[in-house]
Amino acid sequence: MVPGSATKNEVFTVKAIIQHQMETGLRTDSTGKTIPRKIINQFVCRYGGVEVFRTDLHEAVSANPFLEFQLLATGNGLLEFSWREDGGATYSLYHDIVVT
Amino acid sequence: MSLTRRHMLTSTIGTVACAVALLTPKHTRGTDEVEDFLFRITGRKATPSNRLRLVMPAEFSTGYTVPMSISVDSPMTEADHVKSVRVFAPKNPLVEVAQFHFVPGRSLPRVSTRVRLAAPQHVVALAEMSNGNLLTAKAWVAVATNGCL
């Protein structure tokens, strides 16, 4: 969730959530075999191509990881959110912001 | 070898001294434990600071999704900013929770998320400032049901 517009030098809040199991790799299935770890291990927010916020996530982050953070409106630009999963797959979301 | 009175005295004193050393609790307060924990992890001394705030509920019904908010007082200029904040849950099987990286002039050192806690414990935040200082803050969280990790 991101506002569509902001005034210059204003602080705006970004709320991001992704549906993900966050399998910790510490659980076992009914046969006693370890369920392999599969978590979102990194979240990056780029603003106009520049990295402005990054999070390294570990096993203790809840399922469906939720992040709320604050950015400074520096100018018109594309916000890119990307989540990286174990195994290297990435999921990205884009959002244009108009700064007046 | 004969056992003299002198032998008996010295050995008794030695034994008593050892026992006292062993029985004296190494940690008497939670603060010491947190400081020791951070020193083991970073190899450096972190300063407890009011500038770093870690806000978590003192009691929470489930250890699966415990809300957590972090904020740091900082002008976020090139010369004086927060580089990153790391969070640890020392009683979890894997103590690292997350690390948040901030950029001067672009992001504010504030973040909220949800974490899993395997047991009631002190959650520890560690902020690395641009001048290399380490600030720390902790929050006691009692979870009613432990989050499976």
TrEMBL record, chain A:
A Pfam family annotated for this UniProt entry: SoxZ
SUPFAM superfamilies in UniProt: E set domains
Superkingdom to which the source organism belongs: Bacteria
Sulphur oxidation protein SoxZ domain residues: 4-91
The name this protein goes by in its record: Thiosulfate oxidation carrier complex protein SoxZ
Organism, as annotated: Rhizobium meliloti
The organism's taxonomic lineage, starting at the top: Bacteria, Pseudomonadati, Pseudomonadota, Alphaproteobacteria, Hyphomicrobiales
Annotated gene: soxZ
TrEMBL record, chain B:
Pfam families (alphabetical): SoxY
Domain Ig-like SoxY: from-to ranges: 43-148
Protein's UniProt keywords contain Thylakoid: no
InterPro entries, per database record: SoxY, SoxY_sf, Sulphur_oxidation_SoxY
The UniProt record lists the keyword Amino-acid biosynthesis: no
Keywords: Plasmid
UniProt-recorded name of the protein: SoxY
Protein source organism: Sinorhizobium meliloti (strain SM11)
Gene of this entry: soxY
